[in-house]
Specification:
This protein is an alpha/beta fold and 226 residues long. The chain has helices spanning 18-24, 59-67, 80-89, 107-110, 139-146, 162-174, 198-205; strands at residues 49-53, 72-77, 97-101, 115-121, 149-159, 178-183, 211-217. The protein has one domain (6-221): Vaccinia Virus protein VP39 (Rossmann fold, 3-Layer(aba) Sandwich). 26% of the residues lie in helices and 21% in strands. It has a seven-stranded mixed beta sheet, with helices on both faces. The longest helix has 13 residues, at 162-174. The relative contact order is 0.15.
């Protein structure tokens, strides 16, 4: 494995030629803020935009892009070494996929009223109480997401961490989301169309249940921001 979550006790492994990989890839967007509010002009087709925050080595978002050519996908990853490995996985000829190397705290500077769905797959749980604001379902992030959705807000989360999952259910509900689908064991549920990430495969092989929530916030409940 290239890296793992902080709580799993594994270190980020440096990729020595990461900058060369990033520079050479046509899938990495070097100037993402230039497209804020006009990502529809970036892709070959003007289609709904789906964003994964924290792509890891890219297995999930690549699988989704191949399975759903009717949607455009953007993967966000903070670490150079990780996104370099993800970029290496993408074959030629996937016109509905691109990647951004950025901190998720900047997400409202990169998108504006144009995202249909956000995916949060096996995000760092930041288990300590003082770290709660770093969780991707904390009020700080949920407030930022409000300004990037095109209409109804949709968040789909998968995690192996029960404490993060419980926190997310409460946080999403308090922020006005309706929990459309909730599973305490995704792979034993009737939920269809699941595409697995690297972490998901790893944890499933160990017999760990995968927690899943599909949450939606109706546009009528949004507080519009000027």
């Amino acid at each position: 494995m290239l890296y793992n979550k902080v709580g799993d006790g594994m270190r980020l492994r440096n990729v020595k030629n990461k900058q060369q990989i990033m520079d050479a890839s046509s899938y990495l967007v070097k100037n993402p803020k230039d497209y804020c509010g006009k990502w529809n002009t970036f892709f070959e087709k003007n289609q709904p935009i789906h964003v994964e925050i924290g792509t890891g080595k890219g297995q999930f978002i690549l699988g989704m892009a191949l399975a759903h050519p009717e949607w455009n996908f953007i993967g966000i990853e903070k670490y150079d070494s990780v996104i370099a490995r993800a970029l290496e996985k993408i074959p030629e000829g996937v016109p509905n996929l691109c990647m951004i190397r950025m901190n998720a705290l900047e997400i409202d500077e990169v998108f504006s009223r144009e995202v249909e769905t956000i995916y949060l797959n096996f995000s760092d749980p930041w288990p300590k109480k003082r770290q709660a604001n770093r969780r991707l379902t904390s009020p700080i992030f949920l407030n930022k997401y409000d300004s990037i959705f095109v209409q109804d807000e949709t968040i789909i989360q998968k995690t192996d961490n029960p404490h993060l999952f419980e926190y997310s259910l409460v946080s999403l509900t308090q922020h006005g989301y309706e929990l459309l689908e909730v599973s305490l064991d995704l792979h034993q549920s009737s939920i269809e169309g699941n595409v697995m990430s690297e972490y998901e495969e790893k944890f499933s092989k160990k017999g760990k249940p995968i927690f899943y929530v599909h949450a939606k916030k109706n546009v009528s409940n949004l507080v519009k921001k000027d």
